[in-house]
């Protein structure tokens, strides 16, 4: 198979984890006789530095002309003081909007060998396997008006939370479709006791649910959901929710797996190529130290192979290789207990490659 991949390393640890993931992809290419062409492009802080904009037109074009997109992370203290339309994060948001990457799938799977790496009790997280389906191109991230002004000498900031019925419908449908091929259970998370947008959300969920009679579903308020994630995480199968709730709940959920550095994601497009990225950020506190956990990005690649290219065997081999590395106790600092030896980004990556190459094709 021959595919082109737009590669957007971004800032901080972004370039480190992307480099690691592509090294692994090179191994897959060699082992399974595929050709992956990488087309590099700038986004975020690096793009501001080099092109005075967080999302250059060339980057957008490169993404549109590729079969899939791999992204590291954007942002960092260097750009924190810039006005909001010039921030690195704005580049990512514009990219999501331009490519209509409306469905962000964030699988949360607890590896057997990492049970003790989570702050939660092993018996509580054993068997955790659910997916957060996060709406990614609507809600308070994009609503208008969004402004700062003075009202009778009082300084004021406004953000707007908007959802159309259509936007809700398409993401909820994704959630139900996914549940259908999993354990057939949807938890829709909202704040319908307060927000009008959540009341519309609930109505739409009730309607869409009728099309999937074999899937059971429920509504859950977001504050309760945040608590249930810790109390009984094995309860969940597919959790579908709006943009900001999904952002917050997925960082919380990542700790069930032991680290934010473990959670991959796929941002599926309504119109063109989809984007694959770890859920974590640019981690400025460890950037440049060869310390970042590359597994979230490597797992995002496994999602790309499976969802975008239909390469199930390769994706499974990659998951298997990751599991073997963790079983051997080889892990980056974020997963190691205090006083226990930990490995560099490169060492973990090389070990994944080593494990991959031992899998017979
Ligand atoms: N998708 C993205 O590009 C994305 C996502 C989240 C945050 N950000 C941006 O990243 C910058 C830093 O944000 P933050 O510090 O709040 O969140 P962060 O996710 O970058 O880091 C939070 C904590 O988790 C650790 N961490 C994150 N990824 C890790 C990994 N792979 N391996 C080991 N440890 C890891 C970091 O060291 C840090 O202590 C901000 O500018 C933010 O806007 C970008
Ligand atoms: C960087 C930021 C805009 C982004 C988000 O909030 O969507 C990030 O936190 C994520 O989870 O991908
Ligand atoms: Mg986030």
UniProtKB/TrEMBL annotation:
InterPro entries: IsoCit/isopropylmalate_DH_CS, IsoPropMal-DH-like_dom, Isopropylmalate_DH
Site, as annotated: Important for catalysis: 141, 191
Name of the top EC class for this enzyme: oxidoreductase
Cofactor note: Binds 1 Mg(2+) or Mn(2+) ion per subunit.
Binding site for substrate: 96, 106, 134, 223
PROSITE patterns membership: IDH_IMDH
Pfam families: Iso_dh
Binding site for Mg(2+): 223, 247, 251
Catalyzed chemical reaction(s): (2R,3S)-3-isopropylmalate + NAD(+) = 4-methyl-2-oxopentanoate + CO2 + NADH
Listed cofactors: Mg(2+); Mn(2+)
Coiled coil start-end: none
Entry binding sites for NAD(+): 76-89, 281-293
Pathway named in the protein's UniProt entry: Amino-acid biosynthesis; L-leucine biosynthesis; L-leucine from 3-methyl-2-oxobutanoate: step 3/4
This enzyme's EC code(s): 1.1.1.85
SUPFAM superfamilies in the record: Isocitrate/Isopropylmalate dehydrogenase-like
Subunit structure: Homodimer.
Function: Catalyzes the oxidation of 3-carboxy-2-hydroxy-4-methylpentanoate (3-isopropylmalate) to 3-carboxy-4-methyl-2-oxopentanoate. The product decarboxylates to 4-methyl-2 oxopentanoate.
Family: Belongs to the isocitrate and isopropylmalate dehydrogenases family. LeuB type 1 subfamily.
Protein name, UniProt field: 3-isopropylmalate dehydrogenase
Protein source organism: Alkalihalophilus lindianensis
Encoding gene (name): leuB
């Amino acid at each position: 198979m021959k595919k082109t991949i737009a590669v957007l390393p971004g800032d901080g640890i972004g370039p480190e984890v992307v480099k690691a993931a592509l090294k692994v992809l090179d191994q897959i290419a060699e082992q399974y006789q595929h050709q992956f062409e990488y087309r590099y492009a700038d986004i975020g802080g690096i793009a501001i530095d080099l092109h005075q904009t967080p999302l250059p037109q060339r980057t957008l074009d490169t993404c549109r002309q590729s079969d899939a997109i791999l992204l590291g992370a954007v942002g960092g203290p260097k750009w924190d003081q810039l006005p909001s339309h010039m921030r690195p994060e704005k580049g990512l948001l514009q990219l999501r909007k331009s490519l209509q990457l409306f469905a962000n799938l964030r699988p949360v799977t607890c590896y057997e060998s990492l049970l003790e790496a989570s702050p939660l009790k092993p018996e509580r997280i054993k068997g955790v396997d659910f997916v957060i389906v996060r709406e990614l191109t609507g809600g308070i991230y994009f609503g208008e008006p969004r402004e700062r002004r003075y009202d009778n000498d009082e300084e004021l900031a406004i953000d707007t939370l908007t959802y159309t019925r259509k936007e809700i419908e398409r993401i909820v449908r994704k959630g139900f479709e996914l549940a259908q091929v999993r354990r057939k259970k949807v938890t829709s998370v909202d704040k319908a006791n307060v927000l009008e947008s959540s009341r519309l959300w609930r109505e739409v969920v009730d309607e869409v649910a009728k099309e999937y009679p074999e899937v059971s579903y429920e509504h859950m308020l977001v504050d309760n959901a945040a608590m249930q994630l810790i109390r009984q995480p094995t309860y969940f199968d597919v959790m579908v929710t709006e943009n900001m709730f999904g952002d917050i709940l997925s960082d919380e959920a990542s700790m069930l797996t032991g680290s934010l550095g473990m959670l991959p994601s796929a941002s599926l497009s309504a119109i063109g190529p989809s984007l694959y990225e770890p859920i974590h950020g640019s981690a400025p506190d460890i950037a440049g130290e060869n310390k970042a956990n590359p597994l979230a990005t490597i797992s995002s690649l496994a999602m790309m192979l499976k969802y975008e290219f239909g390469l199930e065997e390769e994706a499974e081999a990659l998951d298997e290789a990751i599991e073997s590395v963790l079983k051997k106790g080889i892990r980056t600092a974020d997963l190691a207990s205090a006083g226990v030896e930990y490995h560099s980004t490169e060492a973990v990556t090389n070990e994944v490659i080593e494990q991959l190459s031992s899998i017979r094709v």
